[in-house]
Sequence to fold (226 residues):
Amino acid sequence: MIEAQGISRVYETPGESLRVLDGLDLSVADGATVAVVGPSGSGKTTLLNLLGALDRPTSGSIVIGGRDVTGLREEEASAFRNRELGFIFQQHYLLPQLSVLENVLVPRLAGGWDEDAARTEDRARMLLERVGLEGRLGHHPHQLSGGEKLRTAVARALVNEPQLVLADEPTGSLDVETTERVADLLLELNAERGVTLVVVTHNAELAGKMGAVFELRRGKLAERKG
Fold:
């Protein structure tokens, strides 16, 4: 699913060159579950942004599902993200003026969907039922708990039936019990749908539930053993 080779990301500022990633390699098989851990500021979110074609590496190549995404033009990258990937962020980025159901359907609003609108809505309703929000479809984000917002974001990430889901600190603001429920939900969806899952997290318990754990330090990844 993911083949990243020689990935470097350097940010240039006046009088300074900051190398966040330094010749990093990462290989993730189809259907795998992977956690990326490391200290704050180590570049975990930068790596996730590169894998999701939200940013471009300074050097190296990234192939997702057999497609080289390194040099995609912005409109191509946008279409790729909208149709091929699912994103879950710590802040969720739910639109406050939209209902839960409408928020899940937001990826469709970006365009490029050939599927009938009614079929997409049926799947959105099914996903919201799957995450236990069937009774909250008409509610708005300010009426939801932190866990409910995250579950809405999970449903939104899956509405385009992606083969790869990228999650950036998805449980960072949740209590222990809710974190466990969300972790179990993500793993159930991985098992049921074969979705490849890459999770950036500080949470040791969440990381331990993934099939592999990679630590990011000094710009490079190393897999933890045992």
Q: What stands out?
A: The chain has eight helices and ten strands. Residues 30-56+73-223 form a domain with the Rossmann fold fold (CATH 3.40.50.300). Residues 176-193 form the longest helix (18 residues).
